[in-house]
Design goal:
Elements lengths: L5 H17 L7 E4 L3 H8 L7 E12 L10 E2 L6 E3 L3 E12 L5 H15 L2 E2 L1 H13 L5 H6 L13 E5 L4 H11 L6 E11 L5 E2 L22 E6 L12 E7 L4 E8 L4 E5 L2 E2 L5 E5 L10 E11 L2 E12 L2 E4 L3 E2 L7 E4 L1 E3 L8 E5 L2 E4 L11 E4 L9 E7 L2 E2 L3 E2 L6 E2 L3 E4 L1
Parallel strand pairs: 1-2, 19-29
Antiparallel strand pairs: 2-5, 3-4, 5-8, 6-7, 7-8, 9-23, 10-11, 11-15, 12-13, 12-16, 14-15, 16-17, 18-21, 20-24, 22-23, 22-25, 25-26, 25-29, 27-28
Helix pairs in contact: 1-4
Length: 423
């Protein structure tokens, strides 16, 4: 998800990409800006040799109708601590205006811009990422935004991609708008950029895991004639697997299973596993033997490849959660007089920069301190921690998957740690 700078990041990316449209064009020097039209009008002038300028102006921000009911901010019983951080989904409404004082030049400027927007219906993640890196490297970001971390806005990593669509403004609406802007009307193309998902990373309260789940439902014995997966079963009755675990896959007509594919489309991770064991018509097993930096924690889709001569087909996909594991942590933490404390842990697999990483002390969750490369030693800064009479559970949450703290093989399940005491 994006930070509060996501709106500014969209404008910065559009401004930079438009700049590249006019670079080397036969029109000469063209300035691309992103300020209010009255400011541009004052700066451009009206002489025959006035500068050519294209201006982006964000004139309205509205809630996205598809996302607005996804979630609402909610607080715990104390009325202050958030229980979740739902995204704020916004549509950005722009005016693209061109300025020129010679015959037909304004139309030429507008033609280039509208063609670019038509050919760029979606801002690719690679475009956003490379543009923000170039802006930071070439000092194209204004100092206040550079200090605030515009290039770290997370826009390229939000779940929704930014889509560019033309908008239609009626004559009256356009007239009212330019009257309010107190600027003379110039050739203008309205369009919309959607959707920007802004999600704060406030510390949260989070409940402990459910000890037992018992779900049953009657179903007829109607097996599919083709190979199909019906259940992915991590070991030790856990709802997730750890690196090094052996996972069991169950299904129908799996006798020809030769490999499985783990896929995490968010990070472009695809890992084939060809060493299958205990293979049979209804199940097989495979081991998650990957290095800590090779396979990030999170939710993957798992697909089996089954050979039925002369063809090799892919089965349906089922989700498999790979959990992080805390391998080393401090036994206690001592907050300062304001309740602030820093905690560092060691974990496997490594956490990646674009993942949502939280550390939970009891029910208090806080996001990881900023890091730029995959690391197995993330640090976390807690605020308003209160002392605990005894150690409380310590969990690492990566992309919504928690590290294990419960042994489900025993009845009733028992707490296995790790834990930490707040002094």
């Amino acid at each position: 998800m994006s930070t509060a700078l996501g709106i500014s990041a969209v404008t910065a990316v559009l401004e930079t990409l438009l700049n590249s449209v006019y670079t080397g064009s036969s029109l000469g020097t063209v300035t691309v800006s992103a300020v209010a039209p009255d400011i541009v009008q004052t700066a451009v002038g009206t002489t025959a040799d006035a500068n050519l300028q294209v201006n982006l102006f964000l004139h309205q921000v509205t809630l996205n109708t598809a996302w607005r009911n996804i979630g609402y901010p909610s607080l715990s019983a104390d009325g202050r601590t958030p229980l979740k951080n739902p995204p704020l989904a916004l549509d950005l409404h722009y005016l693209l205006t061109v300025y020129a004082s010679q015959n037909c030049l304004a139309e030429a400027l507008l033609g280039y811009a509208v063609e670019f927007l038509f050919e760029t219906p979606v801002l690719l993640r690679s475009q956003i990422d490379s543009t923000m890196k170039d802006l930071a490297k070439n000092h194209g970001i204004p100092n206040p935004l550079k200090t605030a971390g515009l290039d770290k806005s997370g826009l390229a990593n939000q779940i929704e991609m930014i889509k560019i669509t033309p908008a239609t403004l009626g004559r009256e609406e356009m007239a009212w708008l330019w009257t309010a802007l107190k600027a003379d009307y110039r050739p203008t193309f309205p369009f919309q950029a959607s959707v920007v998902l802004i999600q704060d990373q406030k510390p949260l309260l989070s409940s402990l895991p459910v000890l037992q789940r018992q779900v049953t439902a009657p179903h007829p014995n109607a097996l599919a004639p083709l190979a199909a997966l019906t259940l992915i079963e991590p070991p030790n009755s856990q709802p997730f697997a750890l690196l090094g675990d052996t996972v069991t896959a169950q299904g129908n007509n799996l006798s020809g299973a030769s490999a499985v594919l783990l896929d995490n489309s968010r990070f472009g991770v695809e890992k084939p596993i060809s060493a299958l064991t205990n293979a049979g018509p209804s199940s097989f097993q495979f081991a998650l033997n990957f290095a800590p930096a090779e396979l990030p924690a999170g939710v993957y889709t798992l697909t089996a490849q089954v050979t039925h001569p002369p063809d090799t087909v892919d089965t349906n996909s089922l989700p498999l959660a790979i959990a992080p594991k805390i391998t080393a942590s401090p036994p206690s933490v001592t907050p300062d007089v304001h309740g602030n404390a820093s905690v560092s842990i060691t974990c496997t697999p490594y956490v990646w920069p674009d993942q949502e990483v939280f550390l939970l002390i009891g029910s208090h969750a806080t996001p990881a301190d900023a890091f730029t490369t995959a690391t197995g030693t993330p640090s976390f800064t807690f605020s308003a921690l209160t002392s605990t009479p005894k150690p409380v559970p310590l969990r690492l949450r990566v992309d919504g998957v928690d590290s294990p703290i419960i042994d489900y093989t025993q009845s009733p399940p028992v707490f296995t740690g790790p834990s930490i005491k707040v002094n």
